[in-house]
Write a structure and sequence with these properties.
Mean pLDDT: 95
Number of domains: 2
CATH superfamily of the largest domain: Probable tRNA modification gtpase trme, domain 1
CATH architecture of the largest domain: 2-Layer Sandwich
Distance between the termini: 43 Å
Largest sheet: 6 strands, mixed
Length: 320
Amino acid sequence: MPSQFFLASLESELGIIQVRGPDAGKFLQGQFSSDLQGLAEGQGQWSSYSTAKGRMIANFYILRQEDVFFLLLAADLAEDVVARLLKFRLMAKVDVSRMENQGWSLLGVWGEGAGRALASTLQGTVPEETHRAAMMSGGLLLLRTPWGEPAWWAAGPAAPLESLGQKLEETGGARTGADGWRHAAIVAGTAFITRATSEQVIPQELNLEVLGGISFKKGCYPGQEIVARTHYLGRLKNQCYRIQSPAEMHPGEHIFTPDMGDQAIGTVISAARDGDGHTALAVLRAANAQDSLHLGSLAGPRIGLGTLPYALPLEQDGTG
C-alpha cells in the first residue's frame, strides 16, 4: 500500500529570516504588501517586498510568534532580503537574522496521513487551521500551510527536527526531495520568487491579491502606488497560471505564442516534475493564455494549461 504522507528537507529550497525587536511590527508594516497589524499571535499570511516600481524583490510567508516575525522565502534570496531590511531599518529597534545561522532547519510534511503522524510523533495538538502555528516539543515550530490540502512546515533546531523526520519515516512517511514539496505547492497555486525571477513581476501577477498577501487599506510601503493603481484602475494584464509540459521547465524561462511573434508573453516562476511530464506556475499575459503556447521559443515544446484551486484575479474581478 503506498504511503499516505510525505516529508522533505527544505534547506536548499527555503530560507528562514527572523525579525525581532520592539519596533519589528511597525517597521515591517512599512516595508511589506500585507497588513501586519491584524496578524495575531501564531498566525501567518502571504506577503511581498517590492522595489519602488512595484516589482517584487521577493515574496514570502510571514508568521508572527509572540514578538517575533519569521519569513519563509526562496533560499537564494534570503541574504538579499536581510541586507535590504538592515539597510532601511534606520533608527528602528529591530534585529534581522538568518535562522540557519542559529542552527535551524526546515522540514515539509504533507499528505492525508501527515496530521495524524505529526500529532502522534510530537505528542501534542497539531494546528489544523490554515495560517496557524504552534510550538511543539523539542522547540519545534509547526505551521499549517495556507494550502487546501493537509501540509505543514516544521522549523527549529536541526537535531530535534532530524529526529522528527526519522520518526515520521518509521511511521510510514515517504521521504522525497524538495521537488516533491514544490510540486505540492504548485498544485496549491503558490510559488516563491527566486533569484531567476526577482524584480520581474508585481504582486498581483503572482495572484497574491487572491491569496491574501496584499492590503489596499494600509499605509505606504515600497511599490504601493503601482500596486494600488493596478488594482483601482483595472490595469492588471498578467496573472499566474498552472501550466503543463512534457519538457523540463525552469524558473525564468520565457513563454511565447505565434500571435505575439518574438515577444515573450510569460515567465516560468516555479517548476517541478509531474508524473512523466512537468508542471509549473507561470505569469502569463491573460489575453494570450488560451493561445498556442511554447516554452523557450516559438519552436519550443508545447505548453498546456492546468487547473488551480482558486479563481484567478481577473476572474474574480469579472474581467477574465
